[in-house]
Known about the structure:
By secondary structure, this protein is mainly alpha-helical. The protein is about 60% helix and about 5% strand. It folds into three domains: about 10-110, Orthogonal Bundle (Fumarase C, Chain B, domain 1); about 115-360, Fumarase C, Chain A, domain 2 (Up-down Bundle); about 365-445, Fumarase/aspartase (C-terminal domain) (Ribonucleotide Reductase Protein R1, domain 1), CATH 1.10.40.30. Helix 11 packs antiparallel against helix 12.
Amino acid sequence: MNEDKPLWSGRFRQRPAADLMRLTTSIDIDIELLPYDLAVTKAHARALEKAGLLDPEAVFAVADACDAIETAWHAGEIASAPEDEDVHSLVERLLTERLGETGRRIHAGRSRNDLVATDLRLWSIAAADELIVKLAALLEGIARAADEHQDTVMPGYTHLQRAQPVSLGFHLCAHGFAFARDATRTQAARAAADVSPLGAGALAGTTLPIDPSVAASELGFSGRFANAMDAVSDRDFVCDLAYATALCCVHLSRLAEEIVLWTSSEFGFARLDDAWSTGSSMMPQKRNPDMAELIRGRAAPAVGELTALLTLLKGLPLAYDRDLQEDKALIFGTVDRTLGCLEGMTGLLSSLTFDTARLAGAAAGGASWATDLAERLVARGVPFREAHEIVGDLVARLEQDEESFADLTPDQLNAYGTVFEAADLEVASPTRSLESRANPGGTAPARVTEQVASLREIASGLQS
């Protein structure tokens, strides 16, 4: 190898244009793969040894050199050279500087195509593991808050209009189960990445007697590739991880939106403590939920990065194409952003205090008792569509008369229709409404207790 030329320069008579190198170099981005590239290099050295292409002493020397390079990198002592167009060429150069001829032998039987795919799979597995840890922490935080507020009444909404009374714990659990699904998707993305492509070469394998299973085992993969061409061109696992993070960010954004609403003066349902609030440079009175707004905003690039990845892949012929260089910036960005948003949301939730009186007052308004009353009529044999019409007419008449259902006497209720009974006035109590919804998955405190336990079990399973 000529140390001042790219790895691929052998068949060329002219040096590459400076602008070509500037525009194609990716080391500023893929340097994040350096620890994985070193691990893959050590595993490949072991595979070369098994194939009789590298002696044991050289394998040990490669492992020691790789460990030294990683230590130096963490210490900030590694700098790239102009000929290092990517992390792979950097590692090969450093190994050659340290080991001479052994460093020049290490790339036998592999290509940057299968090398980068292997690096990226290892990175994706580690990223998925980190995401799962953060999701577990958020789930535990949601379960803790939901457990505390199993009996806290609030309005449930459809179309952002008050619909039926629910408990705050029930509402928080609904968010929790969405994040539990995010964890399942992240686990699936991890499993998709857990296949070694090392040994696929550029696209068709190698004529050298290298067993891909050796490196796969050394690296801890569950299996190896089945088709070399697919192995170097497959980025499904990256899309799986991007989809998991994008949908997680969507769920984070929905919860963030509710925190923005709940902490506003108009709702007044909750308050963030000072440590998780920001102010205005001009208006002294302001108390802004900036973290929630940023989480909501950062869902946008996560969705965009997933779209960009799918668009990047959709027109590529088999096998490897240089377009795939662009996948790393996209997935690195979305994972890093999602990790930060998960941390931020976990902190936000822990800092929220709720105005239970205001929540209960809101739950009692807006004729939220109407569905319960209609279902009482159904239980007495009235067809639902007829019961719906009767109660809807009652709501309209009460609004016209400026009367409150909760303040009616039995005689006044009877004046609105003989189909009603005095006991029907019980439905005006939001607390009673909660308790009556005791069917599986409902908002009754006993059911919320079950949901909290389920979320905690999921969170515990993610941490094991």
